[in-house]
Amino acid sequence: AAGVVYNYDQEGVHRAGSGWEQCICIPLLQPGLLELLQHWDHLLEEFSQGEAWLPHRYEEQEHNCYTFALAFINHVLSTQGHEPLSKGEFTERFVLPETRRASRYLTLHQELSQREFYIVPLPEDQHSS
Question: Which domain holds residue 34?
Answer without folding.
Answer: 5-114
